[in-house]
Write a structure and sequence with these properties.
Blueprint lengths: L3 H7 L2 H4 L2 H4 L8 E2 L5 E4 L2 E5 L12 H14 L15 H14 L3 E5 L2 H12 L5 E5 L4 H9 L4 E4 L4 H18 L3 E6 L11 H6 L7 E5 L14 H4 L8 E5 L9 E5 L1 H10 L1 H4 L6 H16 L1 H20 L12 E6 L2 H14 L2 E2 L1 E3 L8 E6 L7 H19 L13
Parallel strand pairs: 3-12, 5-6, 5-7, 7-8, 8-9
Antiparallel strand pairs: 1-2, 2-3, 4-10, 9-10, 11-14, 13-14
This protein binds pyridoxal-5'-phosphate.
């Protein structure tokens, strides 16, 4: 037998095992100052590309004012209790109604957080007779929702419709014997690769198979579609999405999330989602702040236009400079390089310390061994000058990587 705490040392995980060298630098870094492309890291200004503040709403003066006034009027405690018991307000219901109108779904339910919202929605929507079919590159909140599902689940190869159909055949066969239904889950925008889920093609499969579709559009809401209503709007198939999810943590630059669906589904979720029934309701400043953010998304399309101007400049510039940015068709911009984890850490360190460019680094096991992914999130606040500067810095570090300058035997301590 072993002591439980002793065992934790052996189970630190792929990132945790580097905690001593990386903490405070690669992991848990502190970016200080107002949220903007230029923020301070360890007292020095850096050009940041890792905040999902797509539309620049985090520090928009009208947003800051709405947040501050709501906090002054209501404090952070109000309302007390879960929505069902004592935590409901007109503002919560107004936000749900405005979100529903914006995404053109009959009803919306507000959620406290996206991660636990998706997990809890999956838990509520299916029982042991039902079968889930999901994309292999699904976000952790979907994977953890699946862990709660005691029925069968089938995974299909990322965005591969042949594989999805194969799994739908299996799922249908099984559901016919159990008397259950089938739930297909994909993301709208995959947050690592920037690829879009093939929602339109999945919706078209409804002509052949009987299933309901849940789309996690965390990165698509606000950035995709003519009005910013998300990837369903961009692919012109919003009505085929049975359960539309997004979070306030990205374009909306806040906290909270929501699901839009048919009235009967939202009523069911209101009375059966454990993460909402057994948890305190969203604080008023979050709700009033979200109303303001939604108003700006609706009334200031120039924010999304500016975002896309930066996205196109960045992605075209990187491609023209010979970088592999994969198959993104969304603002998420991965830059794929070849190298080891020590090389990745030295390259990122060089970028951050000598070029003052701050971006997130993604290595194995999120990407295959030998691949270094630097993930850039352009926003409406970045300028074309920022783009030019960054591409130039990337060219310099890539040359050094290719000439072996970052080859070191072990990860240096940066913490
Ligand atoms: C695809 C996806 N779903 C859900 C979430 C979770 O959202 P939240 O930060 O509101 O918990 C995220 C955020 O990281 C995400 O990228």
């Amino acid at each position: 037998m072993k002591d439980l705490f002793e065992k934790l040392n052996e189970r630190m995980g792929p990132l945790g095992m580097h905690a001593d060298e990386a903490h405070g630098y690669f992991t848990f870094p502190k970016l200080e100052g107002p949220i903007a492309p230029r923020m301070k890291f360890r007292g020095v200004e850096k050009l940041t590309w890792s905040l999902n503040n797509y539309l620049g709403l985090a520090s928009h003066p009208e947003v800051m004012k709405a947040d501050a006034e709501a906090a002054a009027e209501f404090g952070m405690a109000y309302p007390m209790g879960a929505r069902m018991m004592s935590g409901n307000t007109n503002y919560h219901e107004q936000l749900e109604a405005e979100l529903a109108a914006f995404i053109q779904k009959p009803k919306v339910i507000l959620l406290n957080y996206g991660y636990q919202g998706v997990l809890s929605a999956i838990d509520a929507l299916v029982d042991r007779h039902d079968v889930i079919v999901y994309d292999a590159e699904s976000h952790a909140c979907i994977i953890d929702g699946l862990r709660l599902h005691i029925g069968k689940r089938y995974v299909y190869t990322h965005n591969n419709m042949e594989s999805l159909e194969k799994q739908l055949v299996r799922a249908t066969k099984l559901a016919e014997t159990t008397g259950g239904g089938v739930l297909v889950i994909t993301e709208g925008v995959f947050g690592m690769s920037g690829s879009q889920g093939k929602i339109k093609e999945i919706v078209d499969l409804k002509a052949k198979y009987n299933f309901r579709l849940l789309v996690d559009d965390a990165h698509g809401f606000g950035t995709m579609g003519t009005t910013g209503a998300g990837t369903g709007e961009a692919q012109n198939c919003m009505e085929g999405i049975d359960i539309y999810f997004s979070t306030f943590a990205k374009s909306m630059a806040g906290i909270g999330a929501f699901i839009g669906s048919e009235p009967q589904v939202i009523k069911f979720l209101n009375y059966n989602m454990r993460s909402q029934i057994y948890a305190k309701s969203l604080p008023m400043p979050m709700v009033i702040g979200a109303l303001k953010r939604l108003e700006l998304i609706r009334t200031q399309p120039q924010l999304k236009d500016q975002l896309w101007k930066v996205v196109h400049a960045l992605q075209n510039g990187l491609r023209e400079a010979g970088f592999d940015i994969g198959i993104t068709t969304t603002p998420v911009t991965p830059v794929l390089l070849n190298g080891s984890i020590p090389e990745a850490t030295h390259l990122t360190h060089d970028l951050r310390e000598n070029h003052h460019v701050f971006c997130s680094i993604v290595v194995y096991p999120v990407v295959p061994k030998g691949v270094i992914m630097l993930r850039l999130i352009p926003t409406a606040m970045h300028t074309l000058e920022d783009v030019k500067y960054t591409i130039n810095a990337f060219k310099i570090v890539k040359n050094k990587l290719d000439s072996g300058d970052y080859r070191q035997e072990k990860i240096a301590a940066f913490a």
